[in-house]
Amino acid sequence: MRISQQGCILQSGDVRGYSKDAELLLGGIFAIHMDVEYPEVKYQDLPETIRCRRFHIRYYRFHLAMIFAIKEINKSPHILPNVSIGFIIYDSCYNEVRSLLGLMWLLSGRQETVPNYNCYKQAMPEAIAGDTPSKSSMPIARILGLYRYPQVRHWKTSTLLSDKTQFPSFLRTISNGNFEVTALARLVAYFNWTWVGVIISDNDLGREGSQLFIKEIEKYGGCVAFLEILPVHNSQEEVFRILEVVNKSTATAIVVYTTMENLIPLMEEASSRNLTDKIWLGSARWSIESDFPRKDILKTFNGSLGVAHRRGQIPGLKEFLQSIHPSTSPEDVFIKMFWETAFGCKWLDDKTRGNASKNGIPLCTGDERVDSIDNSVYDVYNFRYTYKVSNAVYALAHALNDMYLCVPGQGPFKNGSCANIHNYQPWQLLHYVKKVHFKNTAGEEIFFDENGDVPLSVDILNWQLYPNGSSRYVQVGTYDSRSPKGKDLIVDEGRIQWNGRHSQAPASVCSARCPTGHRAATRKGHPICCFDCIPCSEGEILSPTEINQCIKCPDDQWPNSIRDQCIAKVIEYLSYEEFLGGCLAAISILFSILTACIFGLFLKNCNTPIVKANNRELSYLLLVSLMLCFLCSLLFIGHPLKITCMLRQVIFGIIFSICLSSILAKTITVVMAFSATKPNSKVRMLVEFKLPVYIVLACSLVQVVLCISWIADSSPFPEFNMAAEIGKIVLECNEGSTIFFSCVLGYMGFLACVSLLVAFLARNLPDSFNEAKFITFSMLVFASVWVTFIPAYLSTRGKYMVAVEVFAILSSSSGLLICIFFPKCYIILLKPEMNTRKYITGKNKKTLK
Question: Is 531 in the same domain as 639?
Answer without folding.
Answer: no
